Amino acid sequence: MTPKELLYLEDALGHEQYFQSQCKETAAQLQDGTLKSYVEQLAEKHQQIFNRFYGLL
Question: How much is the pTM?
Fold first, then answer.
């Protein structure tokens, strides 16, 4: 893997961590059960994407 590709993966991992943390924070503040569940699913999806990117290393 080239240095540029590694930098891209680092950047992507950081974005996915950020998106996941934002989803978790938002879900904790929501009172509507349906919406809260959806945002929690988004957080899980970002964790899965993070894991896929991490698996490329």
Answer: 0.87
